Automatic annotation (TrEMBL):
SUPFAM superfamilies for the chain: ATPase domain of HSP90 chaperone/DNA topoisomerase II/histidine kinase (SSF55874), Ribosomal protein S5 domain 2-like (SSF54211)
Protein name: Type 2 DNA topoisomerase 6 subunit B
Domain (Histidine kinase/HSP90-like ATPase): residue spans on this chain: 42-192
Organism, as annotated: Halolamina salifodinae
Job description of the protein: Relaxes both positive and negative superturns and exhibits a strong decatenase activity.
Residues engaged in binding ATP: N57, D88, S109, R110, G119, Q120, Q121, G122, I123, G124, I125, S126, K644
Gene field: top6B
SMART domains attached to this UniProt entry: HATPase_c
A matching Pfam family: HATPase_c
GO biological process, one term: DNA topological change
Length: 814
């Protein structure tokens, strides 16, 4: 014992004394001490979190019941406290469930459901109740009315933190003007310092939930903040899905194996998992067999045989092994088995047993002789020895059918030229290990057994033959051997056996993970969709440009997810500083911990200069008048903590976020590029507009001739589409000259103040309030000129509007 331990030992506490102080900690007690984990770390933040939890639940409940959400939020100062009321028109909560929903942490309907919902853990609203009772000492007051019931139920309750059970302080039926829904009233110590975050949360909730009507009253607002419904369309209904084989953990798998009614692995796989039909179940079982039983090595009949006539040798060995069947039956049997083996590329032990069995049955039927079990076993042993003989016989002759095959395989699998003697040495050592002493030696190995054998043989070769066989060479050898080996047909253990044995369950899990399985279905997800992402941005931001992208569904840890991104640029969006980033998870705005969020990391790592935005230093948040919104929808959103403020860094999700952003950003880039080139064009045209008349004056002055006609020159110089009018008496001629390098389709509306005549076919004049509208839609090829001619009284006015070509590429003198 060290001196320090002696000293410590003097007043050390005994295990018994320690035990007296040890007791179970209730989940409610835990969160009482760790409020920050749930987003209740301060009065300001606590109020926002309580609003968020109640509104998220209200939206989940109303949508799930198929009602268009109508949500009312009120915050009022009451003495030293703030009172929060949230009302919804959802389905209500039954009298039996209500106390648990609000008075028990970790109680909810969503934790076990694989479906896209805002709520996930069953903590949110009860944590708000806990926070309110801890800070104000007041109970939560809940009113709820289920559809069709005459009255509403009213409860006052708190959470007993020792037991994590609701303690009901008052309970009665009451009347309520809503025909169904839930109302919760919480009093808490709070302040409005996080007003900006509260407004952001409500406003952004409205952006991504255009089907909801939300009203917020709070002390700082003279008028309530109202967000009217922009669509009657509820988000697509989501379906719950079974777990995906790639997403379960070992503990869950063992639990599922214990609970299932299925007997066979195939039934279990097909019944309990999504995307598993008969074929996929078979692939999982094949992989499971490989792990559980190992695979068998197969051997060619011809390779390495000492005699040229392999077939004859095998026949002879078989004849020697069989007695009492008569010459005919014995010969036929031996010939057929030998022939079958020599025709095959390789044969494994189990395959050989099958071949012998089939031939024995056939020859038995044909000749009337019975080929019993012993005869078959002897035949298998004899033929197997012919395929795999290794060693030295009594006369000192070597029998080695394995080394030549392995030599070839090792040679192929090792890329760098190895010394041939060393390759031979390794092949021989492997052969030695494969030959083994088992009786019968079926040469059955699991992948890890195979690795060990290759390693042993490799180490020995390095030691004795002075040649290195590095990791890559060894892996390649193992891989080629494993690929050549065959899956055995043995019945896999049944569900009960697997459930009772952790190692076997782990083999099944590995097999599930390794099998290629279709991604989970996505009808459990309801993305906002590209159009609505853009519509949401248009509703809230007056910008010059909008783009949105919704990616296809992907999977992380067995849970499907979809990422969407939207960009609004320019217009009224503030230009100073970095862009605004809006983050959403399952349609819930994330307002805190932006810096810790995977979305922020991804935005920062993108090179925004490539997309036309400023990015000081080439990395980090870009700057400019832009809003970027990112939505991740999943049956299991990975948050960094229970307060659900930030997305955790899951590589699969980050990759999709990046691709979604880049998709929308590419549109922004082409918009900005075009805008830049248009601005340049405008500048050039402005200059030309000033210079051309001056040049015309000069030319006229110098040459003493008339002013040259500069109309049309501008269009030619700028490679524009020029639209010119000529009037000759009553004849009006509109000509369109395309100087650009591509064909253009124009929409020209000519408005005239008197009735036009002599209109060409296809051009009509429509009269409205003493004005005539002529619509002309010419397609003009590059370099082509097209004319519209008609007649008009000389004193009538005419004016043309041209659409279909950017203003900057158009020169109109008409
Ligand atoms: N306004 C409501 N109307 C109907 N049911 C509700 C309402 N609020 C909550 N519930 C029910 O109570 C359960 C518990 O809600 P709670 O907020 O504690 O957890 P959650 O929303 O499931 O998950 P999270 O902890 O992630 O918010 C919900 O799963 C839902 O079944």
């Amino acid at each position: 014992m060290t001196s320090q331990q002696t000293t410590l030992g003097e007043d050390a506490t005994t295990a018994e004394e320690l035990a007296e102080g040890q007791r179970e900690i209730s989940i409610a007690e835990f969160f009482e001490k760790n409020k920050h984990m749930l987003g209740f770390d301060s009065g300001a933040r606590g109020l926002v979190t309580a609003v968020k939890e109640a509104v998220d639940n209200a939206l989940d409940a109303t949508e799930e019941a198929g009602f268009r959400p109508d949500i009312y939020v009120e915050i009022r100062e009451v003495g030293d406290y703030y009172r929060l009321v949230v009302e919804d028109n959802g389905p209500g909560i039954t009298k039996e469930q209500l106390p648990k929903v609000f008075g028990k942490l970790l109680y909810g309907s969503r934790f076990h459901a694989r479906e896209q919902t805002r709520g996930q853990q069953g903590i949110g609203i009860s944590a708000a109740v806990l926070y309110s009772q801890l800070t104000s000492g007041k109970p939560a007051k809940v009113t709820s009315r289920t559809q069709g019931s005459a009255d509403a139920e009213y409860f006052e309750l708190i959470i007993d933190t020792d037991t994590n059970e609701p303690e009901i302080q008052a309970e009665r039926t009451t009347s309520w003007d809503r025909s169904h829904g839930t109302r919760i009233e919480l009093e808490m110590e709070a302040n409005m310092r996080a007003r900006a975050q509260l407004h952001d949360y409500i406003k952004h909730t409205a952006v991504v939930n255009p089907h909801a009507r939300i009203e917020l009253r709070e002390p700082g607002l003279d008028e309530p903040l109202k967000f009217e419904r922009a669509t009657d369309q509820l988000p697509a209904e989501t379906k719950e899905i079974r777990p995906h084989p790639h997403g379960v953990e070992l503990g869950t798998l063992i639990k599922m194996l214990g609970a299932t009614d299925s007997y066979s692995v195939s039934g279990f796989m097909q019944g309990e998992f999504t995307r598993v039909g008969k074929k996929t179940a078979d692939s999982v079982i094949a992989n499971f067999r490989d792990r559980h039983f190992g695979r068998e090595l197969g051997w060619p009949a011809r390779n390495g045989a000492p005699s040229a006539d392999v077939e004859a040798d095998i026949e002879e060995a078989l004849r020697d092994a069989i007695s009492n069947k008569g010459a005919d039956a014995t010969d036929t049997f031996a010939e057929r088995v030998a022939n079958s083996l020599t025709e095959r590329e390789r044969t494994s032990y189990t395959q050989l047993v099958d071949i012998v069995g089939t031939v024995a049955d056939e020859v038995g039927t044909e000749t009337g002789k019975t080929f019993g079990t012993t005869v078959r076993e002897n035949a298998v042993a004899a033929a197997w020895a012919e395929l795999t003989q290794f060693g030295t016989d009594e006369e000192g002759d070597e029998f080695d059918r394995l080394t030549p095959t392995l030599h070839e395989l090792v040679d192929d699998a090792t890329s760098t030229r190895k010394d041939d003697a060393a390759v031979h040495g390794l092949a021989e050592r492997l052969a030695q290990r494969f030959a083994g002493d088992d009786e019968p030696n079926r040469m059955r190995f699991t992948l890890s057994e195979l690795k060990t054998l290759v390693d042993e043989a490799g180490d020995a070769t390095e030691e004795y033959d002075d040649e290195t066989f590095g990791d890559t060479a060894r892996e390649n050898i193992v891989e080629s051997l494993w690929e050549r080996m065959v899956t055995v047909p043995d019945e896999p253990p049944n569900v009960d056996e697997i459930a009772g044995d952790r190692d076997t369950a782990s083999e099944l899990l590995e097999a599930m993970r390794e099998t290629d399985i279709l991604a989970p279905p996505t009808d459990c997800l309801a993305p906002i969709t590209e159009d609505l992402v853009e519509a949401g941005l248009r509703k809230e931001f007056d910008a010059d440009f909008y783009a949105a992208a919704t990616r296809d569904a992907e999977v992380h840890g067995g849970d499907p997810f979809v990422v969407e991104a939207g960009i609004a640029y320019g217009g009224e969006i503030e230009a100073g500083g970095t862009i605004q980033l809006m983050r959403f998870a399952n349609r819930v705005p994330l307002v805190y911990q932006r810096g810790a969020c995977a979305t922020t990391n991804v935005v920062k790592r993108i090179g925004w200069r490539n997309y036309g935005l400023d990015q000081p230093g080439g990395s980090g948040m870009p700057s400019g008048p832009a809003v970027l919104s990112i939505h991740v929808a999943s049956t299991n959103v990975p948050f960094t903590s229970e307060s659900k403020d930030a997305l955790a860094s899951v590589p699969e999700i980050e990759d999709e976020i990046e691709l979604a952003i880049r998709e929308a950003a590419r549109e922004l880039k082409s918009y900005l590029n075009k805008r830049r080139s248009m601005a340049k064009r405008r500048e050039k045209q402005d200059v030309l507009g000033r210079i051309l008349p001056q040049m015309a004056d000069k030319v006229a002055e110098v040459t003493g001739r008339e002013h040259p006609n500069i109309e049309g020159a501008m269009a030619r110089i700028m490679n524009n589409v020029g639209v010119d009018r000529e009037r000759d008496g009553e004849t009006v001629r509109l000509s369109v000259e395309n100087h650009s390098d591509r064909g253009e389709s124009l929409e020209i509306t000519e408005i005239v103040s008197a009735e036009p005549g002599d209109l060409p076919d296809g051009v009509d004049a429509i009269e409205m309030d003493d004005e005539w509208f002529l619509n002309w839609n010419p397609d003009v090829d590059s370099g082509e000129t097209i004319e519209l001619e008609y007649s008009l009284p000389t004193d009538a006015d005419a004016d043309a509007t041209v659409d279909g070509v950017d203003d900057e590429k158009l020169t109109v003198n008409a």
